[in-house]
Specification:
With 202 residues, the protein is of the alpha+beta class. Helices cover 23% and strands 38% of the residues. It has one helix and twelve strands. A hairpin with a 5-residue loop joins strand 11 and strand 12. The relative contact order is 0.18.
Length: 202
């Protein structure tokens, strides 16, 4: 009986260790999954992978005698009642030339709505060479009911795009934006003086 009892205890301890290892594995995988999205986003921003453009603080000091056709695509995800479009459908700057283009967004709903634009460049190989100096996509955008806003993007194509094997034959790139709804302060019932209170949605 004593030997059987000892064996039973050992089996119980072994089973407990297996359960603990399994739980640790599950929690570890969950943590890795949670971290995967921001890590992947950081990787794309650093490398231009998957068409992610680069954010820079200064303009190019080199301008080539070769142009690049840049077209624009604008979309709105469900949840935002906005009209969103580029002012110009395409431009043809010289490679290395800093240029500004504008997009227009209009809130077609009867309430304040907040959105933020997600962006990418196609073909994906051009993402590492598409440098943004200024962009509305860096911040969230609030629009009042019926409000229309013109938003600038300042960018240039890195001259190194003509040197890399995977990008030297690219002649057209497309900068694409999609506005998604973001949670934020919402207007609530007006006060007696006619001004609206703002509360944060928890």
């Amino acid at each position: 009986m004593t030997e059987m009892g000892e064996a039973s205890k050992r089996t119980g301890r072994n089973n407990g260790a297996v359960v603990a290892m399994c739980l640790s594995f599950v929690f570890g995988m969950g943590a890795m999954s949670y971290a995967a999205v921001p890590l992947y986003r950081m990787f794309c921003q650093l490398t231009g992978y998957n068409g992610t453009t680069q954010r820079v603080d200064q303009v190019s000091s080199v301008v080539l005698d070769r142009t690049m056709r840049v077209t624009f695509d604008a979309n709105v995800a469900s949840g935002l009642q906005w009209e969103f479009k580029p002012v110009e459908r395409e431009v043809n700057p010289r490679i290395g030339e800093t240029i500004q283009v504008n997009f227009v967004a209009e809130n077609r709903s009867n309430e304040v709505q907040r959105g933020q634009a997600i962006f990418n460049v196609t073909p994906g190989e051009a993402g590492a060479y598409f440098n943004k100096v200024q962009c509305f996509c860096f911040n969230e955008t609030d629009l009042k009911p019926g409000e229309k806003l013109e938003m600038p993007v300042v960018f240039y194509i890195d001259p190194d795009i003509v040197k890399a094997v995977e990008s030297k034959d690219i002649h057209t790139v497309t900068l694409s934006y999609t506005f998604y709804p973001k949670e934020g302060p919402k207007p609530v019932a007006s006060k007696a003086d006619g001004t609206a209170e703002i509360e944060k949605k928890l």
